[in-house]
Amino acid sequence: MEERVFTDRGELVLRSRDGHFELFSNGVFLMDTRSGLSGRMLVRAALAVAKPRPRLLIAGLGLGFSLAEAVRTAASEIIVVEVEPAVVNWHRGVLRPFSEGALDDPRVRLVTGDLAVWLTGTSDRFDAICLDVDNGPGWTVVDHATGLYRRSGLAMLREHLLPGGVLGVWSASPEPGFADTLTRLVGPVRTVRIPVRPGRPDVVHVASSAGNDRRDVRGVRRL
């Protein structure tokens, strides 16, 4: 099975292989359904330091593992922003088992649109934001995602955090320089590495704004 759509950001392909699904953007592999651990770890790591019953923003629906993890928590509200309508449609069908029907949870609100555009037009603020767009800060496939990982994009995300809020960022590879930028802009960073075989580990950076007066914060704690 293969489904192919053409969007404003290029070609998007969902392909089944050996009982699993793979997602490609403009011919570049993004993710598959074989594990989903790093998507779940993104939510776990962020909510581990967020306040109880948090308002959560998930930026990027992907293959649904982050959202499925989020609905298993005590989050009071979960907003999911996904730029590709095709991805949303796939989660109403062939990908529903992987997101575990989480789009139907009454706490979930789906926004289909560009994250930066949506954030610019909303005053909503969150206890935790989980950013999982494209392949992370070091390897973006589509141009619209690049700005989210620059200082201006991270500053915009920070402005949508409630006091003491946390920003979790998924990355396909370790990005020490990016972690330093997160520390300066948001607050102290914890970096979690998720083993991937074969290849380099996936990475989740979690920056906590608690106690940060938004001046430079020195030091990055890594696991």
Automatic annotation (TrEMBL):
The keyword Transferase applies. Residues 1-223 form the PABS domain. PANTHER family: BLR2883 PROTEIN, THERMOSPERMINE SYNTHASE ACAULIS5. The keyword Transferase applies. Keywords: Polyamine biosynthesis, Transferase. CDD domains: AdoMet_MTases. Belongs to the spermidine/spermine synthase family. This is Spermidine synthase. Transmembrane segments: none annotated. Pfam families: Spermine_synth (PF01564). It comes from the Bacteria. InterPro entries: PABS, SAM-dependent_MTases_sf. The active site is at D132 (proton acceptor). The lineage of its organism: Bacteria, Bacillati, Actinomycetota, Actinomycetes, Micromonosporales.
